[in-house]
Amino acid sequence: MKSLLLLSVLAALAVAALCYESHESMESYEISPFINRRYANTFISSQQRWRAKAQERVRERTKPAYEINREACDDHKLCERYAMIYGYNAAYNRYGRQLRGRK
Length: 103
Known about the structure:
One of its GO terms (molecular function) is calcium ion binding. By secondary structure, this protein is an all-alpha fold. It has 5 helices and no strands. Helix 3 (65-74) packs across helix 5 (88-102) and helix 4 (77-86) runs antiparallel to helix 5 (88-102). The N and C termini lie far apart (85 Å).
């Protein structure tokens, strides 16, 4: 009798765990899950878009030294291989004179 009760409780828990349906799975059944192309960028104002473009231009002009070193190292195969093992800082320190001499 005890084992039958235990078995029925375990079966009920298994059914509850396997048959549970979250609301997240229902998101794909929405009527229109995608935004029309015409209205895709309307949630961002033109002022915010302009500000984001300006910030990106500033970031491109004022790159940190490690980013410049990394880009220079990415263009040089030996430096890139060395960087995969020892890191970009060590690779640039090793191949730095050669890379600066090229440009």
